[in-house]
Amino acid sequence: MTAVDAIGGHGRTVQDTPGGLSPGLPAPRGPVTALLFRRLAAPPDGRALHLDVTGADLGDGDFQLALFTCYELHYRGFSGVDERWEWEPSLLAARAVLERHFEKLLARAVPRPRVNGPGDVRRTLVALTADDSGPSVSRFLAQRAGREHFREFVVHRSIYHLKEADPHTWAIPRLAGGPKAALVEIQADEYGGGRAERMHSELFRATMRGLGLDDSYGAYLDHVPGVTLAISNAMSLFGLHRRLRGALAGHLAALEMTSSLPNRRYARGLRRLGGDAVSTRFYDEHVQADAVHEQVAAHDLCAVLAADEPHLAGDIVFGAACAVELERLWAAYVMARWERGDSSLSRPS
């Protein structure tokens, strides 16, 4: 039995594909992805592509996978998909429909925090990220989880961590001065300071291997629910639109400001389950690095950006609120299933 079989999957084994290669298209999860994947399997031909997501909610796997797939063409792409699809006008028009719906869902789920001008941005970020009262995956993993729980957790996180920092890097050419320098400082650490083996995505691959999981890029895209994909989709939405650069900065700040304590718990839980120094290094690294990053992100990036461009203050705190709320929804989803003895992973219909 391979590592993928142990999770209940049908992907590649650990040895099949190096981490840098593109995965194949996942299985469709409904009518939207079925239509989209049929079109992506052939070269672009200019025909209009109509994707109806009316009624889809934030956790809808068909909707979120369709949007994720459109975004992924700007990252690694998919094996067997013509690379001209990335900028194909018919696909961009279809993606815009998905994005408008996603933005409406986010606006409905995340009340826009009140911020009293640019000078209030840092205080608002601290208040948004201070609440630790919701369902806590990190406490469960530190104290009660079994090895299969931790493996599932890592499968969820692989959707983002195997391309960690990439969505937020889109903001670098869209900023200037101090905020740009602050973002580069954070991202340089995320990318290992120029050393490939220290890149956070590579450290996470080592964690996956230590747990007997497939560490190739996109290996578990078929296995995660819509709410997991929504977390990554929010980053890509904010990152790929210059008008949302404020939201992207706030989103990054929220990630950094809520990182150190949970990662300390993850490291403790993995050691409790027999994880060695190589497996836990990803979490240990974040305990230290993000304690610094949270200060840089909150002040040098977000507060200074709000001072430089006051009209972005509201977007900055909204982006942070989206990060916090999507994480809360994901944690509630995962914990509800674990508490009743079920898997938190899903399979496409």
Question: Can you characterise this structure?
Answer:
The chain has 2 domains: 3-109, no CATH class; 118-339, Heme oxygenase-like (Heme Oxygenase, Chain A, Up-down Bundle), CATH 1.20.910.10. It has 15 helices and no strands. It has helices at 3-7, 31-40, 61-72, 89-109, 121-129, 137-143, 147-161, 166-169, 177-190, 200-210, 226-239, 245-257, 260-272, 277-308, 313-339. The radius of gyration is 19 Å and the shape is globular.
Protein topology:
Blueprint: H1 3-7, H2 31-40, H3 61-72, H4 89-109, H5 121-129, H6 137-143, H7 147-161, H8 166-169, H9 177-190, H10 200-210, H11 226-239, H12 245-257, H13 260-272, H14 277-308, H15 313-339
Helix pairs in contact: 2-3, 3-4, 3-11, 5-12, 5-14, 5-15, 6-13, 7-10, 7-11, 9-14, 10-14, 11-15, 12-14, 12-15, 13-14
Name of the top-level CATH class of the largest domain: Mainly Alpha
Q: Are there runs of 5+ residues with pLDDT below 50, and where? A: 1-18
Tell me about the largest β-sheet: none
- Share of helical residues: 55-70%
Find the CATH topology of the largest domain: Heme Oxygenase, Chain A
Distance between the termini: 24 Å
How many domains make up the coordinates? 2
General form:
globular
Number of helices: 15
Q: N-to-C SSE series?
A: HHHHHHHHHHHHHHH
Mean pLDDT: 92
Key features of this structure:
single chain, about 350 residues, mainly alpha, Heme Oxygenase, Chain A, 2 domains, about 60% helix, disordered N terminus
